[in-house]
């Protein structure tokens, strides 16, 4: 059936059953690469996108539940030529190894920064807790987020 | 013919000398994992140039436009693409942006065996370094001929030009047009002076990162070919099981399902869209399962290995005369089976067309793969092309090889349609080969001089090298009919080793007896996981060193230095501990504590020393890591920041292994199937800070650094816990429950 969703500012008609996870609509109908299949269970965050500003797991969000609320993926932030401040901070910190988790990390962090432009270190860590990275890029991801949040120090002692 | 060519090039006597040196000292391609790289044609040449001595295998300089460099090594997320670009740019003396780098494609690049074992810089980087130096030498000589001057008077300027003292210049392209690169390298082409390096040793931003930050097509998962279909395999919950009554017909009738592939027990559904394929898989899997292999070792975990038949391998047996024994330390150490835990489940795309098969795979071994998959599907190897395409980090043999073989089988049944197969999360956990569970036992003593008097060491392990080199290496090979038997597991010989990797201490101890009990029978399906047996061997050695130092009342750093003669090993230990503030560190007080550890990976790779400060939350047993300081010597660094990134990652991954990871199972199946049942380190648990110092070693040979932190980190953690609490923990994972029990609260 036909559904209308708004992704990265553009309205799209997609032919999908409402129970289809948003992830597959984004990847397979709209051809986006940012949201990744990691677990399909809402446990790893590789599929994280913003829905109405909040970070959500697109792998467990039925497309039918999206309604009129805007969806934003990492493609909606910036391009490799014109990166958003957060993408640029990830680049400056070289905050990726394999990078499979990174689009989800960026979208989760962006949701925090949208709601609170100057979060504390503790708040950043708590907010990012849901997203997994197996390469162990956490310290650089935290540095990139701090850079945008305007926290200078390299991690308060835990 | 090869012998004749070698004799012509090297001369008989020299050839013999190289062969003998090569036998004793040669490192095995890919750390000894997988199949051998092609036989060396020119043992006198450095790195993989031995196997591929002709320059145009590595470098193409067109009359106009960009230079192409070819490598058989693959980008696994470790940043090798950028590091190799830096190497090539430096020795060609061109900007990195002027080079296209083609990697690991069986139709285009040299076969360099596996991308594994921290060999990519040592073998692949060294080959490109010297191939590019050869090319620059030939271009310079061509300019010298053109101008009628001595080549020694000419230079290159970093802009793909040869320049004369009078200011004249010639572009590489113009010079290359009159030059054939279809010639063999010489071993001693003049290299660029490290004092004048323009690219090597600089923190060049990784070239693959921008696409990964912006939703570019960066992974095999993102490959979308015209007419592509989506497949899912239909399976029992884990390796060693099969479905009792798979619902094949129900799946076949679902709208959008194009085919159900059935070959023996191998089942796959193929659909027009990915979500449809997943739904069809779920319908088809609506069945109980049957275990068709021996039960899993529920009672004794890795200690089961000690009870299984073993092949005895003597690693070291030295006799230096009996020394007086003052204090003795005994202990058994273990680690459980680990999951690779790739964030992206394995994925491949396959296309059977025109009598051939093309595979896009994130396997670490595309060269083995094109031969092994050819055998599996019944094609000659030259009809199977395998193109490495990046994916989520694998850290060893995850599902990458299996999923590609399976995609190949499905594609052969549906010629003309590209097939994208991705495993589900639970299939990755259930079917990938695990990292080996292992056990060690040590009995060691110090004399009244507070130096080690003797060292008795045993290690039990399965093979860490079950990478497919023939069709039988794939799990699917025992599901299809007719099938292929799984090959006999083999150990990797020293100096690389597998279960005994790093069981030979780099320290100088007298009276060493080190034995490897190689256990062929595998309770769980296992293969390579980052650092192989080095992780537990270093954990054990470095834990026992701290115990002996404590017994002798000697500072752990001083005790190590007293037994270490290798100057570079001493240098990293001193560098890490000085930066850490070892002398003024807080002493163990029941909660806080500090620990250090050291290893040189395989005793032939990078050197790494780690110091860390931790706190044990006595009420819960939780371990908080406050700060970690590492020092790494990887020879000439290509990109120091690339090494820092790898080592930071290794530290965090090793902390995760040591504190919380273990594959769980009941007698019939693995019960770790998601991130709830296989937890890994998350943001609130990572250290307060990690600092990695990369030693500057201008012009020194490259030493692979990707696995060097795995052993020292886990060991430094155990040493810090012992310092903090007095409790020596020997069996990983060191979970809060284990810590609490050990400190008796």
From TrEMBL, chain A:
Keywords: 2Fe-2S, Iron, Iron-sulfur, Metal-binding, Oxidoreductase. It holds the Pfam family Fer2_2. The keyword Metal-binding applies. The keyword Zinc does not apply. PROSITE patterns: 2FE2S_FER_1, 2FE2S_FER_2. InterPro entries: 2Fe-2S-bd, 2Fe-2S-bd_dom_sf, 2Fe-2S_ferredoxin-like_sf, 2Fe-2S_ferredoxin-type, 2Fe2S_fd_BS, Beta-grasp_dom_sf, Diverse_Oxidoreductases. Residues 1-77 form the 2Fe-2S ferredoxin-type domain. This is (2Fe-2S)-binding protein.
Automatic annotation (TrEMBL), chain B:
Residues 214-294 form the Aldehyde oxidase/xanthine dehydrogenase a/b hammerhead domain. InterPro entries: Ald_Oxase/Xan_DH_a/b (IPR000674), AldOxase/xan_DH_MoCoBD1 (IPR008274), AldOxase/xan_DH_MoCoBD2 (IPR046867), AldOxase/xan_DH_Mopterin-bd_sf (IPR037165), N-heterocyclic_Hydroxylase (IPR052516), OxRdtase_Mopterin-bd_su_IorB (IPR012368). Residues 1-28 form the signal peptide. Keywords: Signal. SUPFAM superfamilies: Molybdenum cofactor-binding domain. GO terms for molecular function: oxidoreductase activity. This is Aldehyde dehydrogenase.
